[in-house]
């Protein structure tokens, strides 16, 4: 049956049994969850492959423009349910498993979560893959097949402990190894001149081998490819060394080559400056460029047509070396003039910026860069020279102060540069790319992020999805703006009650999970207030916990008052070397221990930090949220995408005017959003005051009391000084203006409490958030890229 698409439950049952028997070599009597999951995955995969082959064939036939999305990260999570849902096979799969006495959910949950990304940037890439396939835009995702994805997080005495992630330990059913697609890449060595030609002679060679994963869109109308590269040695095994008894040295080349695709570097890691990271960036960018050219060459003789067939998107600057690499091949290897090579490269390349934080803008020491990529450093100098000739008064360059600046380089090489929310794009023009924008005012465009409704509503929230489909039909899944049609229903008798019931059921399901997985019983009647994201000072998880501490102290003053019960949930990972962020995790855990044990307060306030945040945990938490915490310092969060997922699932946002919060508030209406805090320009002004934090502390006794509680050691009696440095940091430096925003945050939180006591009002606001979040579909974002940046077309008729 393999390769033939099963249609009915009967067919599907047969396909399942075939794979269990012939792919897994198991008898149903003895099959484990793993065997059933693999058999199911293969049955679904066969069906996907049919669409995949048809799409690939059509792409070759039509020979239109292809989009290449280069990203160091694809945070794809689990794929089985995605495949089943997109193909509309859920009923068939359930029935087939049922008939063998297997539980569908349990089998789905057996799949490891592919965490090939750190956070928003990687998850955005995964949502984009889903939308590209749903829209039918011929596209390839290119990245690295990390053997170890983002670390697993656990807590020991409240502290984050990291362990290696091992998603590839079990066979991965979704990928196809392509041993025939291999490219040899070089590092180091010399650049020489021969007969007037410049030739790079690398001293170290490595191979990149392709692994393909089909990505099927909604209703299987199109499927694209995610191609991930794995490092391989050119000569994997030295028989001479082995025979001489040096077994370890005999395989050393292979071990070294594999290390290039071994680990995902964590965001903000102090280690990120290491040579291996730069090697990873060149490795996957160079392999992808070769693959793109090979595909182009198979159909075309005239390289000048490249920009009509190829649009390359660099997801942040991590793949920025792809530009100089393409230029090098066109100029050095194919003999085009530098100017022509640059022109072609420029018309193929585009760059998305995801941060304005100066410390996060990628820069490389020019000595390291020149040692690994000597020819590319020369090419970057020529790009600078050419830019200088065209714009003699400019002061910026891609290489200066002993560094190679990947943001500036990307800007100069790219045809279009985009920000990820309206505010962020505006700030990009005013700050980091001010000078370059003045020279190239047409280059920067905005494409506000979005999320795929298939995963982030249809799959993760089946009850809300059913209610929506019953109310307005099912076209919303591929056309999310249709959610607007819910608005009249919200006014109808009984609808809001059903909507509220869905939330109640989702909260009960989360309580059940937390109880089973962690032995903690949450109060299902309470408001579920959730902050889930990477741990970072600018995201201000410490503002949240400080306000929670202040609130707890007030409850303790008067335990019998009429408090609105809350469950505060946190989840998120801190980079291994980011000690302040790790201390905030520990503080939340330490405080939770004290507060959750306090008989005076525990009925109205519970605090839980759930370990090992990943895509799967987000899928459980978001449908159960009442309140979404989006409280970054204005001007610092480029967009956010979690904020969109929460609104789409009927949570209300408490947030600053930062990133895409601005557009969420515009869409859902100011009345349906709890706004607080300074605006981006007020933040900049306020920071100029040397004593901004002390002024804020002096003006707000609640804040002063919370900071005193930190200093007193109340939450860490065994080590009273543990959090003094956090209190000191906030008092004396407070770069992210936690203290200055505290009072208004407190005010907004009390407004939240007030509205929560009026269930009708709350439910209506939440329902309006769902109805008005259609614009945040990544389908809309991808259509924007196709039109404004790539000039690409859908091949679905
Ligand atoms: O990108 C995030 C931004 O912080 C979010 O505001 C935004 O919504 C998303 C998507 O545009 N940035 C990241 O996730 N960045 C990283 O993960 C990262 C990874 C490696 C190195 C540097 C940053």
Automatic annotation (TrEMBL):
Keywords: Allosteric enzyme, Carbohydrate metabolism, Cytoplasm, Glycosyltransferase, Pyridoxal phosphate, Transferase. InterPro entries: Glycg_phsphrylas, Glyco_trans_35, Pyridoxal_P_attach_site. The modification N6-(pyridoxal phosphate)lysine is found at residue 645. Its main location: cytoplasm. It holds the Pfam family Phosphorylase. It is found in: Cytoplasm. The keyword Transferase applies. Its cofactor is pyridoxal 5'-phosphate. Its EC number is 2.4.1.1. Gene3D superfamilies: Glycogen Phosphorylase B. Signal peptide: none annotated. PROSITE patterns: PHOSPHORYLASE. It catalyses: [(1->4)-alpha-D-glucosyl](n) + phosphate = [(1->4)-alpha-D-glucosyl](n-1) + alpha-D-glucose 1-phosphate. It is an enzyme of class 2 (transferase). One of its GO terms (biological process) is glycogen catabolic process. The keyword Ribonucleoprotein does not apply. One of its GO terms (cellular component) is cytoplasm. GO terms for molecular function: glycogen phosphorylase activity; pyridoxal phosphate binding. Allosteric enzyme that catalyzes the rate-limiting step in glycogen catabolism, the phosphorolytic cleavage of glycogen to produce glucose-1-phosphate, and plays a central role in maintaining cellular and organismal glucose homeostasis. Belongs to the glycogen phosphorylase family. This is Alpha-1,4 glucan phosphorylase.
């Amino acid at each position: 049956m393999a390769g033939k698409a099963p249609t009915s439950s009967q067919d599907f049952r047969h396909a399942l049994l075939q794979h269990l028997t012939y792919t897994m070599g198991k008898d149903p009597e003895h099959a484990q969850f793993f065997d059933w999951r693999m058999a199911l995955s293969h049955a679904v995969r066969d069906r996907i492959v049919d669409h995949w082959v048809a799409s690939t064939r059509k792409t070759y036939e039509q020979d239109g423009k292809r989009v290449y999305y280069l990203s160091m990260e694809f945070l794809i999570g689990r794929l089985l349910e995605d495949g089943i849902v997109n193909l509309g096979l859920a009923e068939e799969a359930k029935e087939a498993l049922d008939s063998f006495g297997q539980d569908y959910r349990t089998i789905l949950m057996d799949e490891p979560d592919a965490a090939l990304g750190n956070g928003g940037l990687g998850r955005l890439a995964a949502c984009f893959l889903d939308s590209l396939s749903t829209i039918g835009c011929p596209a390839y995702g290119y990245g690295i097949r990390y053997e170890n994805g983002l670390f697993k997080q656990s807590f020991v005495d409240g502290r984050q402990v990291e362990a290696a992630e091992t998603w590839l330990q079990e066979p991965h059913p979704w990928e196809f190894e392509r041993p025939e697609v291999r490219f040899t890449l070089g590092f180091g060595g010399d650049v020489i001149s021969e007969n007037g030609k410049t030739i790079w002679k690398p001293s170290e060679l490595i191979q990149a081998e392709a692994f393909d994963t089909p990505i099927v869109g909604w209703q299987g109308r199109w499927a694209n490819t995610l191609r991930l590269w794995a490092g391989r040695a050119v000569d994997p095994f030295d028989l001479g060394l082995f025979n001489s008894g040096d077994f370890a040295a005999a395989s050393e080349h292979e071990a070294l080559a594999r290390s290039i695709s071994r680990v995902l570097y964590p965001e903000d890691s102090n280690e990120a400056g290491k040579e291996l990271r730069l090697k990873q960036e060149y490795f996957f960018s160079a392999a992808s460029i070769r693959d793109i050219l090979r595909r182009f060459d198979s159909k075309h003789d005239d390289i000048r047509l490249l920009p009509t067939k190829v649009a390359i998107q660099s997801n942040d600057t991590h793949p920025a070396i792809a530009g100089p690499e393409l230029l090098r091949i066109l100029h050095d290897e194919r003999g085009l003039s530098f100017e022509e090579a640059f022109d072609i490269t420029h018309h193929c390349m585009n760059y998305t910026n995801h941060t304005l934080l100066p410390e996060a803008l990628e820069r490389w020491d020019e000595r390291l860069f020149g040692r690994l990529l000597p020819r590319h450093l020369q090419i970057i100098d020529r790009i600078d020279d050419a830019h200088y000739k065209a714009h003699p008064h400019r002061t910026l360059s891609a290489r200066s102060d002993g560094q190679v600046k990947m943001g500036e380089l990307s800007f100069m090489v790219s045809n279009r540069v985009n920000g990820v929310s309206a505010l962020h794009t505006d700030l990009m023009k005013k700050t980091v790319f001010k000078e370059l924008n003045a020279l190239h005012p047409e280059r920067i465009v905005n494409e506000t992020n979005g999320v795929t409704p298939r995963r982030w509503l249809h799959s993760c929230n089946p009850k809300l999805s059913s209610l929506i489909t019953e109310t307005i039909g099912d076209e919303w899944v591929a056309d999310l703006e249709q959610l607007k049609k819910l608005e009249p229903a919200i006014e109808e008798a009984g609808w809001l009650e059903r909507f509220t019931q869905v939330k109640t059921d989702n909260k009960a399901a989360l309580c059940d999970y937390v109880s089973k997985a962690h032995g903690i019983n949450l109060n299902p009647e309470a408001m579920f207030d959730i902050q889930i994201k990477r741990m970072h000072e600018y995201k201000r998880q410490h503002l949240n916990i400080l306000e929670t501490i202040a609130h707890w102290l007030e409850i303790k003053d008067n335990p019998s008052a009429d408090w609105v019960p809350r469950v505060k949930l946190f989840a998120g990972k801190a980079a291994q070397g980011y000690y302040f962020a790790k201390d905030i995790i520990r503080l939340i855990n330490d405080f939770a221990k004290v507060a959750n044990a306090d008989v005076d307060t525990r009925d109205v306030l519970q605090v839980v930090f759930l370990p090992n945040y990943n895509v799967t945990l987000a899928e459980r938490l978001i449908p159960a949220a009442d309140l979404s915490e989006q409280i970054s310092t204005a001007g610092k969060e480029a967009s956010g995408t979690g904020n969109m997922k929460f609104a789409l699932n009927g949570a209300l946002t408490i947030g600053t005017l930062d990133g895409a919060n601005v557009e969420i508030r515009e869409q859902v209406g100011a009345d349906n959003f709890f706004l607080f805090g300074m605006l981006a320009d007020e933040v900049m002004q306020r920071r100029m005051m040397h004593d901004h934090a002390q002024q804020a502390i002096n003006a707000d006794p609640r804040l002063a009391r919370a900071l005193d509680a930190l200093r007193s050691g109340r939450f860490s009696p065994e080590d009273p000084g543990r959090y003094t440095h956090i209190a000191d940091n906030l008092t004396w430096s407070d770069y992210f203006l936690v203290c200055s925003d505290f009072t208004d945050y407190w005010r907004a939180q009390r407004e939240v409490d007030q509205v929560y006591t009026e269930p009708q009002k709350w439910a209506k606001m939440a329902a309006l958030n769902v109805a008005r979040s259609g614009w945040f579909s990544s389908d809309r974002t991808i259509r924007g890229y196709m039109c404004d940046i790539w000039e690409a077309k859908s091949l679905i008729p």
